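hey so i finally got around to running the thing on that chain from the lab meeting. sorry it took forever, my laptop kept dying and i had to restart like 3 times. anyway pasting the input first so we r on the same page abt which one it is
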Amino acid sequence: MVASTAPGGKPRQPSLSQLRAFAAVAEQLHFRDAAAAIGMSQPALSGAVAALEEALGVQLLERTTRKVLLSPAGERLAARARTVLEAVGALMDEAEAARAPFTGVLRLGVIPTVAPYLLPTVLRLVRGRYPLLDLQVHEEQTASLLDGLAQGRLDLLLLAVPLAAPGVVELPLFDEDFVLVTPQDHWLGGRSDIPRAALKELDLLLLDEGHCLRDQALDICREAGRTEGAPVTTSAAGLSTLVQLVAGGLGVTLLPRTALRVETGRSEQLATGYFADPAPARRIALAMRAGAARQEEFEAFAGALREAMGVLPVRIVKG
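ok and heres what got predicted. didnt touch it at all, straight out
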């Protein structure tokens, strides 16, 4: 038997319907029973098997008046047909799972000045509301996160905005004020009406280059009238170290409100000062690629996060 060819001389590819019909006959060894098993008429089943034999150029069955037998080639190819059908079934199952929201893997990138303070809330939300979601967290600085989002290494980011990054859509979550953390005996410690102008001459401790919080703090200082030549000590790669330097009397620093309880609770040598309204603040948002396939899911996730973060010392931004 010679395999049939499509126009252009290429062998015809067997269809899934033909493979399904053959697999049913191979299992039942009876055309009527095989047709009933897959919900197909017996003439259609016979035609599908014959078309498969023609497409492959191989006799798969030996037909007699009483029974159906698999040819030697049919026995070998029946196993292959079942493997193909199982693989297609797995493909359809995977596609169905992908269509379902909040299932599968979600690769979330988070900046270091957000991760320790917001992740507990994020993880509680995911465990409680989205148990089928496989959340994978990557803590990196903003530039690295944006690169990961653009390259497809990350799906969603949790970070400070605005980003001014092309091809990125921001989903605002909340605004939070900055507070001034000082040594216990500092003259601004404990005040609730600190003017921004007080930042002009303070010994300010900031994070290393590359942290967006450093840039935000410098912008606040410039808005307050601090000159470029005013002393700024860059001494820490993380907020925990920065706060310990303040406790040691080396200067003062700015902290976002969500970090305050965690970072100042470790030392009794610290005091907190609050700025007069309007206090300097930052906005935290989710960020996704423009046109992301999971856009609706990410927007719903942002809405759920706004609800969950309402208990934090922040001002929720309406979606």
